[in-house]
Amino acid sequence: MIAIYPGSFDPITLGHLDLIQRGSRLFEKVIVAVLRNPNKTPLFSVQQRQQQIRLSTAHLPNVEVDSFDGLTVNYAQMQQAQVLLRGLRAVSDFEVELQMAHTNKTLSTQIETVFLATSNEYSFLSSSVVKEIARFGGSIDHLVPPHVALDIYQCYAHQQTVSNPIKTEATQNLRSLPTQTPMETFPEWEV
Ligand code: PNS
Questions:
Q1: How far apart, in whole angstroms, are the C-alpha atoms of residue 145 and residue 185?
Q2: Which atom of ligand 1 is nearest to the CA of 72?
Q3: Nearest C-alpha to atom 18 of ligand 1 is from which residue?
Q4: DSSP class of residue 64?
Q5: What is the dihedral of CA 156, 161, 166, 172, to 10 degrees?
Q6: pLDDT of 99-129, one tens digit each?
Q7: Within 10 A of 38 (CB to CB), how many other CB atoms are there?
Q8: Which of 142, 140, 141, 135 is nearest to 157 (CA)?
């Protein structure tokens, strides 16, 4: 059975990755499909997001990465998939996801939505949370794959330099984050 895991993935987080890994054990093939949404201004282009997902899932042979526009069920049918895979973090997700699943069911009775409960450690995690932390100079190393963290740090360091060409202490810290491990930054944490 083929499953589509549709989403914005701007950017992919460890929560998404956890779901992809677990989905890949349940289904013959999982296609991670990035929505091309002209109504949103994403941090990363569709190509960048696909590349980030490809690098993050390179160890999973039955996972493919693609992009689509229009209705998810149409894309699923085009891929001959039977399942839409979605994660549930909390009750708040459930309301939105249930509405989406019901809507999709009215569009195609052939496609089933399968929900996986997000692993506890990622129940708070979203792409928006990651971007907010990074925008204010916080560390996101524990929330996204390392190469994605690097992309995000570079993105915000660049934005900060463009909007404020005068280097501040915060800008300097932001730039130094990807090359330093937490232990190098905070040697007092060493046990
Ligand atoms: O990662 P996201 O932003 O929560 O993903 C939402 C997504 C892409 C799954 C949803 O917006 C979607 O399926 N959009 C495509 C349009 C569509 O099929 N709409 C009908 C279902 S509401």
A1: 19
A2: 18
A3: 71
A4: E
A5: 50
A6: 999 999 999 999 999 999 999 999 999 999 9
A7: 6
A8: 135
How does pLDDT run across 136-181, given as a tens digit for each residue?
999 999 999 999 999 999 999 877 655 555 544 444 444 444 444 4
Write out pLDDT tens, residues 49-98: 999 999 999 999 999 999 999 999 999 999 999 999 999 999 889 999 99
State whether residue 11 is helix, strand or coil: coil
Phi/psi for 108 (5° steps) reads: -155, 120
Starting at the earlier edge strand, list the strands of the sheet with 29-35: 63-68, 29-35, 2-7, 83-88, 112-117
CB 6 within 8 A of CB 72: yes
The one catalytic residue among 24, 56, 86, 127: 127
Left, alpha or beta for 180 (phi > 0: left; psi -120 to 50: alpha)?
Answer: beta
Contact 131, 43 (CB under 8 A): yes
Name the residue of 69, 100, 113 to mutate for ligand 1: max ligand atoms within 8 A of Cβ.
Answer: 100
Phi and psi of 25, rounded to 5°?
-85, -20
Per-residue pLDDT tens digits for 19-60: 999 999 999 999 999 999 988 899 999 999 999 999 999 999
SS3 42: coil
Tally the residues of the chain. 191
Distance CA 183, CA 189 (A): 6
